[in-house]
Amino acid sequence: MANGERLTRSIRWLQVYAALMTVALVVLFVRSGAATDDIIRAQGLVIEDAGGRERILIGAPIPQASDRVRTDEARVREVWGPGFPDVYMDFYQDYNHETNGMLILSEEGFDRLVVGDPVPDPNIGQRIAPSTGMVINDANGFERMGYGVKPMDGNYRVSLGLDTDRIQEGLILILDDNGPHGVLVGSGPDRVFLGTAPAGHAWTGLSEEFQGLLVRRDGETVHTLNLAADN
């Protein structure tokens, strides 16, 4: 499947998730308030499944949940700790686990879907800036997709990121008010960038303004088509 088709499909799924959650919230609050015309006010709401497990957290911020892995240090050490260096837990203490919005948990207590302001940090590190948007994690709680808006140096960055199973960004669609506009495919030393970027930006490594296509392999630039340089 071409990268463009993957991106289109991911955006469509993102739209479907957002629509379903909006409908679910509307139905929930309409049914809750069916017997009265008063406005429902609450700081938090916890929805449990038939087995009594906490599965949906809604609030500003979301309520604490005993079943949630992310806020249980013992479980974090058990399920994630072995896959990282010993200093992982030291860094983990500074991660943001809260959000103003809605969080869906798996039966095992892993974060699966978050819509909030800001969304929590990934379980592998802090975000470069608070992000308002949506995050989708895999069954083990690792982020695989994120769509959000971040404040960056007095401007905003809007991005859609798809992560690989190696906990690396595999595809990024980005629009930065003060930086690149385009698509970055690949991670590490092998990547392709299609778009525009200011002079000296890390994504191109070029001293001049960029507009076009750039391909890197093993950290070396092997192909460059820079229309900006031709003007």
Structure in words:
20% of the residues lie in helices and 37% in strands. The protein is built from four helices and twelve strands; from the N terminus they run αββααββββββββββα. It has helices at 3-32, 73-79, 88-92, 227-230; strands spanning 44-48, 54-59, 101-105, 111-116, 132-137, 143-152, 155-163, 169-176, 181-187, 190-197, 210-217, 220-226. Strands 1-2-3-4-5-6-7-8-9-10-11-12 form a twelve-stranded antiparallel sheet. A hairpin with a 2-residue loop joins strand 11 and strand 12. The mean pLDDT is 88.
Summarize this entry quickly.
The chain is an alpha+beta fold and 231 residues long. The chain contains four helices and twelve strands.
List the helices and strands and how they pair.
Elements: H1 3-32, E1 44-48, E2 54-59, H2 73-79, H3 88-92, E3 101-105, E4 111-116, E5 132-137, E6 143-152, E7 155-163, E8 169-176, E9 181-187, E10 190-197, E11 210-217, E12 220-226, H4 227-230
Antiparallel strand pairs: 1-2, 2-3, 3-4, 4-5, 5-6, 6-7, 7-8, 8-9, 9-10, 10-11, 11-12
